[in-house]
């Protein structure tokens, strides 16, 4: 008998590949010469061997993936790897609102608002509970009323959990019994025993820097458990004070619904107040100062993968731009995206500063109170002599005009259905490729996403305009600067106007108020005109300048009398089809605005002597057509 020195090939982990490799090996043995593996019971044995090998290979591959932070898919694995880097994923954060509370108090018996007074608010037919975390003092408003101003309300319910330390319990753990706890607001107290409350008033704090700990430091540590709960644990007598048997631990914590209660108060009015309370004596009124915002869920896996290595690199210090970004992403719950740049990279340069721009989770920009809160947050980790400056994102809106042709013989969709599908593709593109910092608009990829909507689409002809939205002060002369952050189309001086705007009203020198628009003269000057029939008659020949190279429009002594929806939309034609996102710029396709997307879908049968045309367009209002559409 000849000896078969062939080896089983290991070049595939899928079932059929493994089975074929086993079959090829056995076929080379003398004992199985001309053996019919497919028509015998050996085929079942080969199936079993292949399945076992396939499962084992798949299992080992999954285990290997879970061993690394970048490839792990289970939250327990990701959290465990983050813990090794000294990083604790952020918990849920409550939505926070600010209100002014007025009461009727003629006998001056009420001096302050009690801590954790309950308030109710409703959103989408769901009632949420808000409370004030601390007591607030009332000030005299008039002879019969008092007011507590700028009272902070947080959404959620307060709970208590208690634990008795017992060294006889193996691996005793102190786990907070709710996954939606806000770990930034927990309070930990430790007293000597259940009957001896000595030590209760001592302050126990969460560890932020282990290098400052001693054997008597009254601190606790936190971590996320394998089940998604949060656990607190204490020192070992070297790094932090060690607890004794019989000690009573009491944890005061807030359970929150996170982002679900954001944006309460946006419709607040005298006739319909957003917040109510049955727990305040002689309540007169509750006025919303800032709508509820900042609520968020637990940190996502992608966020943990990004932030954990950065947090390890920064070592609790903000030195580089990535340090700031990581720290803010981890500690500021209202940030859906963060961009940071040094003053030396600013235009113009401002040395000694670091600029921070945050896209909030529930609005377009941070309000003043949120900016102050963010500045205070990063001050503690900031380098001496470096001044943090929180600036708003620079939103640039993309206006799309696209003509799409499709072959009706290759699809069952009508022109109207095809338009709906194309709109859906545009929404998918903006969600995946835009609306965050440092994301550029690539024209070729965008048009390809339209072509890929359906196999019947033959092609598309798509052009774009870029838009800035100006919120002017009505009735006052002011100057404004609009930064498009991209070169504007200007082949030569005297070229036709590439700037346009939505409608606003403007008072001419003779006192007559007319509907007006903006344009440019092709030489760098911005003008105001009115339409008389189809003719432009210019009211102001010089209301500002346009820098085509830098993409900056400057208006001087501009005083509109009224605008539509509080804004003036200013459009420009970019020099290139690709639109870049520089520094704190965010590119947006406003799919909720019908004027922002103009799609024409046309059926076309190739090679025919006469194309069959059936078009569907998104409607445009008159102001848009006067703005160059």
Instruction: Output mean pLDDT.
Output: 86
Q: Rg to the nearest angstrom? A: 33 Å
Label the structural class: alpha+beta
N-to-C CA distance: 87 Å
Helix content: 10-25%
From the spread of the alpha carbons, the general shape counts as flat
Note the main sheet: 7 strands, antiparallel
Strand content: 25-35%
Structural write-up:
The chain contains nine helices and 32 strands. By secondary structure, it is an alpha+beta fold. The strands form seven sheets. Strands 1, 3, 4, 6, 7, 15 and 16 form a seven-stranded antiparallel sheet that branches. Strand 12 (219-224) and strand 13 (230-234) form a beta hairpin. The radius of gyration is 33 Å and the shape is flat. The termini are far apart.
Describe the structure concisely for a colleague.
The chain is an alpha+beta fold and 629 residues long.
Task: Offer a few descriptive terms.
single chain, disordered C terminus, 32 strands, 32% strand, 9 helices, alpha+beta, seven-stranded antiparallel beta sheet
Secondary-structure blueprint of this entry?
Layout: H1 15-27, H2 42-66, H3 75-84, E1 96-104, E2 112-113, E3 118-123, E4 126-131, E5 136-137, E6 139-140, E7 145-155, E8 157-164, E9 174-176, E10 187-191, E11 205-206, E12 219-224, E13 230-234, E14 248-255, E15 275-276, E16 283-293, H4 301-314, H5 321-331, E17 335-342, E18 353-360, H6 368-379, E19 387-391, E20 394-406, H7 415-433, H8 443-451, E21 457-470, E22 478-483, E23 499-501, E24 504-507, E25 513-520, E26 525-532, E27 535-547, E28 552-558, E29 562-563, E30 568-572, E31 585-588, E32 597-603, H9 622-626
Helix pairs in contact: 1-2, 3-4, 4-5
């Amino acid at each position: 008998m000849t000896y078969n020195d062939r080896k089983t090939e290991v070049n595939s982990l899928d079932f059929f590949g493994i089975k074929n490799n086993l079959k090829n090996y056995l076929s080379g043995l003398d004992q199985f010469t001309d053996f019919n593996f497919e028509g015998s019971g050996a085929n079942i044995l080969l199936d079993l061997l292949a399945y076992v090998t396939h499962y084992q290979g798949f299992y080992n591959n999954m285990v290997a993936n879970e061993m690394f932070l970048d490839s792990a898919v289970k939250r327990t694995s990701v959290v465990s790897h983050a813990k090794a880097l000294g990083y604790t994923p952020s918990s849920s954060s409550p939505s926070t609102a600010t209100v002014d509370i007025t009461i009727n108090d003629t006998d001056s018996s009420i001096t302050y608002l009690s801590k954790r007074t309950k308030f109710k608010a409703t959103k989408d037919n769901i009632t949420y509970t808000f409370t004030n975390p601390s007591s607030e003092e009332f000030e005299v408003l008039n002879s019969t009323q008092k007011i507590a101003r700028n009272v902070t309300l947080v959404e959620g319910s307060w709970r208590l959990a208690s634990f008795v330390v017992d060294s006889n319990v193996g691996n005793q753990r102190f786990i907070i019994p709710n996954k939606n706890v806000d770990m930034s607001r927990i309070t930990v107290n430790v007293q000597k025993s259940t009957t001896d409350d000595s030590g209760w008033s001592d302050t126990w704090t969460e560890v932020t820097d282990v290098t400052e700990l001693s054997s008597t430091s009254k601190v606790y540590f936190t971590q996320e458990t394998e089940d998604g709960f949060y656990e607190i644990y204490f020192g070992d007598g070297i790094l932090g004070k060690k607890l004794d048997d019989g000690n009573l631990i009491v944890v005061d914590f807030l359970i929150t619904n996170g982002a679900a209660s954001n944006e309460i108060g946006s419709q607040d009015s005298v006739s319909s107040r957003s917040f109510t309370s049955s727990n305040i004596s002689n309540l007169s009124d509750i006025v919303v100062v800032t709508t509820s915002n900042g609520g968020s869920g637990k940190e996502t896996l992608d966020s943990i993968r990004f932030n954990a290595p950065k947090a390890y690199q920064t070592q609790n210090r903000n030195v580089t731009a990535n340090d700031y970004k990581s720290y803010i992403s981890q500690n500021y719950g209202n940030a859906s995206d963060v961009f940071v740049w040094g003053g030396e990279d600013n235009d113009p340069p401002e040395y000694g500063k670091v600029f921070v721009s945050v896209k909030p989770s529930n609005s377009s920009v941070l309000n003043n109170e949120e900016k102050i809160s963010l500045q205070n947050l990063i001050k503690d980790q900031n380098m001496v002599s470096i001044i943090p400056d929180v600036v708003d994102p620079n939103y640039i809106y993309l206006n799309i005009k696209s003509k799409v042709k499709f072959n009706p013989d290759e699809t069952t969709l009508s022109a109207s259905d095809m338009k709906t599908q194309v709109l859906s593709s545009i929404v998918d593109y903006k969600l995946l490729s835009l609306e965050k910092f440092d994301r550029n608009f690539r024209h070729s990829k965008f048009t390809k996403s339209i072509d890929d909507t359906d196999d019947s689409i033959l092609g598309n002809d798509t052009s774009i305009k870029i838009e800035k939205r100006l919120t002017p002060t009505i009735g006052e002369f002011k100057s404004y600067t609009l930064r498009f952050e991209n070169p504007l189309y200007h082949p030569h001086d005297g070229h036709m106007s590439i700037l346009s705007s939505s409608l606003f009203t403007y008072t001419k020198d003779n006192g007559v108020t007319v509907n007006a628009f903006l344009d440019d003269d092709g030489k760098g000057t911005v003008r105001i005109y009115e339409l008389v029939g189809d003719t432009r008659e210019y009211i102001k020949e010089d209301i500002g300048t346009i820098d085509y190279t830098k993409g900056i429009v400057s208006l001087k002594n501009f005083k509109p009398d009224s605008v539509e929806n509080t804004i003036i939309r200013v459009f420009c034609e970019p020099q290139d089809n690709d639109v870049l996102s520089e520094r704190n710029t965010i590119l947006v396709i406003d799919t909720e605005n019908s004027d922002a997307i103009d799609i024409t879908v046309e059926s076309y049968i190739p090679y025919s002597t006469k194309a069959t045309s059936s078009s569907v367009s998104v409607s445009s209002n008159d102001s848009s057509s006067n703005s160059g559409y």
